[in-house]
Specification:
5-stranded antiparallel sheet, Alpha-D-Glucose-1,6-Bisphosphate, Chain A, domain 4, 140 residues
Length: 140
């Protein structure tokens, strides 16, 4: 009886390990990859000054668990890696945000790619823009 229960536990642990490996396997997305995918990003124009957009974008990324935010203002670019706990797993997500002045306001373009695996991203492009718009409303 003890051996049977022990065998079940081992099989259960092995099944979980195989499932985990399958969910987290895959290519690693780099900062260069998300920068290259700019054309596939989701863009929105906001009637605000670029400086306000930089502050709001930073606040959104901080709230999403950004580990470190790299600001490349000369490239109109903000880069980060965020993590999100999904079913007990930490799923890294690379995010690039471009903040550019345009006529009538500021264009904000976002590319968000899960670093590896198949679980949801920490913050999708649509979720970023929703959180960004909420930040702008709160700041009024």
């Amino acid at each position: 009886m003890i051996a049977e229960n022990y065998g079940r536990r081992i099989r259960s642990s092995m099944t979980l390990a195989v499932m985990t490996a399958g969910l987290t396997a895959g290519c690693t997305t780099t900062a260069t990859d998300v920068i290259r995918e700019r054309a596939e990003g989701v863009a929105q124009v906001y009637s605000i000054a670029p400086e306000r957009a930089w502050k709001a974008a930073r606040a959104v990324l901080d709230a999403a668990g950004a580990q470190a935010i790299e600001e490349r203002r000369d490239e109109s670019l903000m880069l980060t890696l965020t993590t999100d706990n999904a079913m007990g797993f930490v799923m890294p997500t690379r995010i690039a945000v471009w903040i550019e002045p345009v006529e009538g306001g500021t264009r904000v373009t976002v590319v968000s790619r899960q670093e590896r695996g198949m679980l949801p991203r920490a913050l999708s492009e649509t979720e970023f823009h929703q959180a960004f718009a909420r930040r702008l409303q709160e700041a009024r």
